[in-house]
Write a structure and sequence with these properties.
Length: about 400
């Protein structure tokens, strides 16, 4: 029994390691080394690295660390959309922007959104599996994630091919940030490539900005008179933030449940779904690293961190310290929900991410039949490690 458990966890770990390595070999090396590092260390070229969940959350809550400036993701966005856009990532403008859309991201709003947009896709998925069909779950969740974010924005997506194209452009744009571990300064040719991808992501923004209703993000951008350029920047940000991470958590959690054999526990006791969702998010941590710029000298855990340096929180390492995927594991207070970040920039789409994972697991378990992974392939050269394909079939 114990031997079986060890083997199943080993298999799940190997599949996860393969995903991380295929997506970004440099990141995989960093995360593997990170498991052996202390809570806060300084590495040549990379700057400060944090592996402890409590310290990571402290830093994310500390205004001495900023998203804007070398090392923070706001620095990348500023290079694509200009300094005015970068100012959205800090201070009063950031708070104003979050409050613009807060009510669209509550638990209730997330349930309504996911049920309306993804419900028909989940019904179709159940029917296909019940008919004995083999389904590529990775393609299904790429489609549903893109439709969901487009719906929030108020952008029309004509069909599944258009949804997949939106997802692919976002994935390619995010992949341009590969290799920014040592510096967030982008080369001019990277900025040019990014411009073309932004155009394809924001093709429908003009129309949505003019006509979007009050319950769409672009409609609200118009009411605030943000202007089309900033609205395009926000659209790109939301499409990047809301598609890949969600899709990654969905397929990887389904694979983890299969590889560890814990789908059988879940099928026997559906009340474990909330735990399975939390464990899936914890173990996969789809945003495996969070970076910050050090805006002023500060002391953390007895170490002096100098202004203008950078800090990388290895959230994947920090979250996985609690142990392997286990759907009977109780809430881990040290980790809380670090996979969604913490502090001012805590993921705005956290409820959407939780609800869509819940609904997918419900769709897979309502028939009471276990699923089998028939074949799988990792996505290569992507910012968020994920499955390119995950073909499943029910028994
Ligand atoms: C499992 C899925 C998801 C994960 C793991 C995730 C993770 C994160 C993390 C770690 C951050 C903080 C980044 C930082 O502090 O530098 C973040 C921010 C954000 N996320 Fe998510 N996210 C997910 C899904 C979504 C979805 C579905 C949406 C929208 C529909 C979304 C929208 C956002 C936005 C707008 C921010 C920026 C918040 C701010 O800067 O104030 N996310 N997410």
């Amino acid at each position: 029994m114990l031997r079986g458990l060890v083997t199943e966890h080993g298999q799940a770990r190997r599949h996860e390691a393969r995903l991380l390595r295929a997506g970004n070999p440099a990141l995989w090396t960093l995360l593997t080394a990170g498991r052996l590092l202390g809570p806060l260390v300084r590495l040549p070229r990379l700057g400060w690295v944090v592996t402890d969940p409590v310290l990571a959350r402290r830093i994310l809550n500390d205004p001495a660390f900023s998203m804007v400036g070398e090392g923070g993701v706001g620095d990348l966005w500023g290079q694509l959309f200009g300094p005015d856009f970068a100012s959205f990532f800090a201070g009063a403008r950031h708070a104003e922007l979050r409050s613009l859309a807060r009510d669209l991201f509550t638990e209730d709003s997330a349930r309504l959104l996911v049920d309306r947009v993804q419900g028909p896709h989940h019904a179709r998925l159940r029917a296909r599996l019940a008919a004995g069909e083999e389904v590529d779950l990775a393609a299904v969740v790429r489609t549903t994630s893109a439709y969901t974010v487009a719906d929030l924005l108020g952008v029309a997506v004509s069909d599944d091919d258009a949804a997949l194209a939106l997802f692919a452009s976002a994935e390619r744009l995010a992949a341009l940030a590969l290799g920014t571990q040592a510096s967030t300064a982008l080369a001019p040719e990277v900025i040019a490539k990014a411009g073309a991808l932004v155009e394809s992501i924001t093709g429908g923004v003009g129309q949505a900005y003019r006509t979007g209703g009050p319950d769409t993000i672009l409609g609200r951008c118009r009411d605030l008179d943000l202007g089309l350029d900033l609205a395009k920047g926000l659209t790109t940000l939301l499409v990047i933030a809301g598609t890949e991470t969600g899709a990654s958590s969905l397929t990887r959690t389904v694979a983890l449940l299969h590889d560890t054999g814990q789908q059988h526990r879940l099928l026997a006791d559906p009340a474990l779904t909330a735990n399975a969702v939390r464990e899936g998010l914890r173990v996969t941590t789809p945003a495996p690293v969070i970076g910050r710029h050090i805006a002023r000298d500060t002391e953390i855990a007895g170490r002096r961190l100098r202004r203008d340096g950078r800090v990388m929180m290895l959230t994947y390492v920090a979250d996985n310290k609690a142990g392997p995927f286990d759907i009977t594991r109780a809430y881990v207070p040290e980790t809380r929900q670090l996979w969604f970040g913490a502090g001012r920039h805590l993921c705005l789409g956290a409820a959407v991410a939780r609800v869509q994972l819940t609904r997918l697991l419900e769709a897979l378990t309502t028939d009471g039949r276990p699923w089998r992974v028939v074949s799988r392939a990792p996505a290569r050269q992507v910012l968020v490690p994920t499955y390119e394909s995950l073909r499943i079939r029910t028994a």
